[in-house]
Write a sequence for this structure.
């Protein structure tokens, strides 16, 4: 998936240079979708594309096979099947940054507690205008 992301970044940067503006999140998501669809026989990954552009915040899910679904939130990976109910129950539109980060951390910790393939660390990245803020946390003991 990193190679796909690198390819999309290359095209997004080219778009920005040629047109003098950053591409819309929907354009980026559709480029990911096109790559996923055209490589569906060899690419075994679901993708989540999210960002903020002039039209506001957006989240797109690109499941295996290369379709595209616009959503309020999205989860993926082996642990995601364990936490759909939790996410449905606890997600609220319009959450503050702190509420959103807590929602993400709680959801991932729950997935990790139930899925042996979900790793042992939670990495979050918040993307304010002044630059990314990264955090890494180990598995909760409770």
């Amino acid at each position: 998936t990193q190679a796909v992301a690198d390819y999309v970044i290359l095209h997004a940067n080219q778009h920005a240079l040629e047109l003098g503006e950053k591409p819309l999140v929907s354009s980026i998501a559709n480029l990911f979708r096109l790559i996923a669809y055209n490589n569906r026989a060899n690419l075994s990954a679901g993708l989540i594309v999210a960002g903020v552009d002039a039209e506001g915040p957006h989240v797109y899910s690109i499941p295996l096979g290369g379709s595209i679904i616009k959503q309020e939130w999205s989860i993926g990976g082996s642990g995601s099947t364990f936490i759909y109910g939790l996410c449905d129950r606890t997600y609220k539109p319009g959450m503050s940054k702190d509420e959103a980060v807590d929602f993400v951390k709680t959801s991932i910790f729950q997935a990790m507690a139930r899925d042996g393939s979900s790793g042992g660390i939670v990495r979050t990245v918040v993307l304010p205008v002044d630059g990314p803020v990264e955090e890494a946390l180990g598995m909760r003991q409770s």
